[in-house]
Protein: Nuclear receptor domain-containing protein
Amino acid sequence: MAPFESMDISEDVLSSSSSSASSPNSLSASEECAVCGNDVVNSSRYGAPGCLGCIVFFRRAIVRNSVFKCLKDGNCNITNEYRCACRYCRLQKCFTVGMRAEAIQRRDLVGPRNPLDIKANLRNLIDIPAGSDTTIDESKENLLQNLVTLQAEQFVKALQYFSDHGLTTHPRRAESHDVNVMLKLCINQASEWGRQLKPFKRLSIESKQSILAEYGFAFLLVDQGFKTAKEAKDGFWLLQNNSFMHSNYFLGVTEEMEIEATTNKKAEYHEKFVSELLHCVAKPFRDLEIDEIECAALKTVLLLTPSFSKRAVYSGQEGYVAAVHTQCMEELMEHSLNKFPDRGEERFGEILLLISSIRCGIKAIYNQTRVSDVFNFREFDSVVKDILLS
Ligand SMILES: [Zn+2]
Ligand SMILES: [Zn+2]
Structure:
């Protein structure tokens, strides 16, 4: 049996991704943002239906006491397309349509708490009551910041593990042992990531495994894609311990390596596989110069929006999923606006598009293991196999 046959990799892996760009708790389709007319309404909690961009814009403006100036006559047209053009008029419009500063909860005004207090903050997150969306602002400040702290700890732990096990290396060709270790590492870390988030934490063991079988790869692609984009030369895909894959299957082969007698077909598949990873993941990560917060946001969204065939796993906890997803989207939007004040909303969209790029990469991994199994997934140790092949 092919190792991934039982995983039901449906053809919708790609098409299902488009829905992840919209918030799962969007209101009815007939409503639109009262400020800019965007037809994806995030919530009405500030007094009028607003899209994510306008909600975050309004909160930031109030929390920061921003003073804007109109360069025209204070009567600019605020539309979905041009809403960023005049912040003065956009804020006026927020008030005109009924958004109220008092509706912003006190905790919003207090600002970030100590980001190192990760346990307390995550505990807050884990205690959100089901289906409630009124506590979103209250209880979960700094979700992404907390996850970035966890991510940094995980990077450090991984390096420690490599050094303890003689896996730290100068760049060299990755062998199946490297791939095996990275996969195991990512499944462990992905599972630790999931335990910070209530919707995942509450799943049965079987459901967790089912999610991790797919999500482990997503997690791995984000971490390796991030490292590759930052550190690798063109054409190389880097694993966490600096071993690499190159589209030329034979590049970096040394005499000591036990490369099994390889057909040309296998080398050909390998070339296709690595090229796909580089093209789908490394290139957009590099072009966008994505940062740690954006990686954390991608990992979180990918955990909450598995491919279509697995989505039912979260049934019964849509409220939790929606709450965490919304929190993640808002913080990503806020981050994008901080990083690129003039084109934050565009940046936000570019980051979300990476979700389908990553799904492309996952598909490449599935195809690769199915047709050639260069890295001998069948031989992987039992922890990995239990999760991946269950
Ligand atoms: Zn809007
Ligand atoms: Zn104006």
Summary: Residues 1-29, 109-139 have pLDDT under 50 and may be disordered.
